[in-house]
Each structure stands twice: as structure tokens, then as C-alpha cells.
Amino acid sequence: MIRPRVKICCIRSIEEARLAIENGASALGLVGHMPSGPGVIEDELIKQIAKTVPPPISTFLLTSETKPQDIISHYKRVYTTTIQIVDELEGHEYEEIRKDLPNVKLVQVIHVFDDNSVKEAVEISKFVDAILLDSGNPHLSIKKLGGTGRTHNWNLSREIRDSIPIPLFLAGGLNKDNIKQAVEKVQPFGIDLCSSVRTNGKLDPKKLKEFFKAIEK
To answer: What residues does 143 pair with on adjacent strands?
Structure first.
């Protein structure tokens, strides 16, 4: 089984970006304004970090904007390689973003609840470059759009994986103790981590090494 790509999310500094890359990260998540959750940094810092990241490492802007023009405006403040849309895009108007940003990859987050999540992922997979499955809840009065540290139903994740023709990232409560089981069950293209490789909010070199060691076994 091919080892999935590893995306380290909630990167908060140039130093954290370097640490993640040195330990084997293929992508970095940079969190813009969110209604809740960890890792939020200012757009200017996202831009500064993204400028230091060498190819072929990908940089993901996590945006909670839901209107195409607002997402485009957010992107143009930071210039990452990829946009990760963490909430539902109004009207599914992905082509408006594509037209304005033809060279930027689009990743849509699907928060996995039930069979409707499978249907949603299949429909949206027609418009984006990858799907990322997470364990948030966009239906709360204060939306939880990621960084929960909770797993979700991996059976549904695998069903989505088998039903879409594009890459799938798995997020939500992944750590060194469950990563092998998660990868074997879902077989994702990539995995996404935040809280499990941090101590007191800071990226922890020891936890990073332990995680990469676990995934290599």
C-alpha cells in the first residue's frame, strides 16, 4: 500500500513550516479567519509563510468564505498554491473561481455525518481537484469547520473514496496510534493533521517524528 501524502495544518510561523517540511510533510495548511477552531493567523503572515515554501510542497489557504468573489479576494491577499474551502460554496459556483484563478487547485471539505455526506462528495467531486473529509459541524450556531481532534465514520469515508474519481484527503482525530488503521480502512491519497502533533498549540518535533515513524511501519 502506497504511503499517503501528509499535510500538516494550522502552521503558524515560518519556523513551523520548515519543521513540518523537514519531517516529511508534502503540504502545509494555513488557516485564515474562522468562526472557531485552532491555528488562525493573519493573512499577511499566511502570505509570508507561503513565499518561503519551496516546490513541490503545496500550501493550502483554509478559507471560511462561502461566496466565490470573497474566496477569490481572500486568495489574492495570500497567494498559496491551493484553496481549501471549509464551508459550503454558495450555488456551487466553482467555475467562477476557476475562471479567475485557473492555476490554483481547489479542495472542498466535506464534514462526514451520514449517507448525505457521500452524495455531497460525489456531486462536488465534479468541480474540484480533491475532496478533504473532516469531522466538523457547519450546522451549529457557531460553526465548527475543522480542528476538532475527533474522528468520524471511516466506513463512510471509504465509501466516498470508492465513489469519486479525484484524490481524497482524510482529516479528523488522526494520530500515531490510529493512523495505520485509518489508512488501511480508507486508503486516502493524503492525510491531514493538526492537534495530534502539537503541544500547547505549538508544533512538537518529538510528536512529528513519532507520527512519521508510525506511518512508515
So the answer is: none
Q: What is the pLDDT of residue 141?
A: 40
DSSP 3-state percent helix, strand, coil across the chain (nearest 5)? 35, 20, 40
Structural domain including 145 reads 5-216
102-140: pLDDT as tens digits: 999 999 999 897 889 999 999 999 999 999 999 765 554
Structural domain count, the chain: 1
Q: Is the pTM of this model over 0.90?
A: yes
- CB within 8 Å of 45: residues ≥ 6 apart: 12, 13
- Return d(Cα 174, Cα 181) in angstroms, integer: 10
* 61 touches 84 (CB < 8 A): yes
Q: What is the CATH number of the domain that holds 73?
A: 3.20.20.70
